Amino acid sequence: MLNNTLKPNFIACDSSLAAADLVLLGIPFDGTVSFRAGSRMGPNAIRSESAGLETYSPYQNSDLTQHAIHDLGDLELPYGNTGRALSIIEATVADLVGMSKKVLCTGGEHLITLPIIKALHAKHPGLHVIQFDAHADLRSDYLGVKLSHATVIRRVWEIVGDNKIWQFGIRSGTREEFAWSAEGHTIMEKFTADSVKKAASVIGDQPVYLTLDIDILDTSVVPGTGTPEPGGLQFNQLLQAIMELSQLNIVGADLVELAPQLDISGASTAVACKLLREIMLLMLSSKLTNQ
Fold first, then answer.
1. Is the C-alpha dihedral spanning 238, 228, 192, 221 positive or negative?
2. 3-state SS of 15-61?
3. Is the Cβ–Cβ distance between 131 and 166 less than 8 Å?
4. CATH entry 3.40.800.10 includes domain 22-285
5. pLDDT at 131 (0 to 100)
6. Whole-Å CA distances, 220 to 167, 171, 203, 229, 269
7. pTM (two decimals)
8. Within a 10 A sphere around the Cβ of 110, how many other Cβ atoms?
9. What is the pLDDT of residues 113-147, one digit of tens each?
10. What are the boundaries of each domain within the chain?
């Protein structure tokens, strides 16, 4: 499946695939979006706007050019066929996991997380999931549909089980979603991400998947998203929370739900680019390995 991509161009991600420790993969899919569409434009916008970003991170005192990163490009996906699109995503990530690569994906909507986790869980059966998000995404179905960006974490739970999903910043969902989580199925922190450090200490050296829905940030920071939710984190709050994960074995991650055309200023895309850089460096500077 690795030849099913378009040309990549994110800054400093110019290592060969064979030599790379981390692979960046764009997944331009938004086939189940329930409000404002357009997140399929996210990966391309992030690549384009990355030229305005420095490769050096003063937050981590690390530079993308110090690491071997390969940008595999954007998957070509059949719009209108959700099942086929998810199969292509899973097969592509499975190939990368089979090569012992860490994988960082850009969306695209949140449903793309499901096939990525399926592929990673096959190699890492003890996988924990850390979710930064405004929405719980724990519905059993959405309008009778099981596969939706509104149900994705419920589907993930069916793979990883209880006490493996850590949710931060959640401030939107149905009464049933919050009640279901409170039954002990997920560990949810509403509104904030203050207990990330505690979560990291509990997880320890177990493998971790990080999924970041950009709508965890307040709408004043990122208006360019499909389902904006006021009352979110500020950028520095989110970045501080992400930095608390530095000692974890993050084997895969994604950044989803950027809809760049909904913010003509370009600020939302700039935020996504910077977050992507920091996540890359975080994954690569981990003291643990992907083996």
1. positive
2. CCCCCCCEEEEEECCCCCCCCCCCHHHHHHHHHHHHHHCCCEECCCC
3. yes
4. yes
5. 98
6. 22, 16, 32, 10, 13
7. 0.94
8. 30
9. 999 999 999 999 999 999 999 999 999 999 998 99
10. 22-285
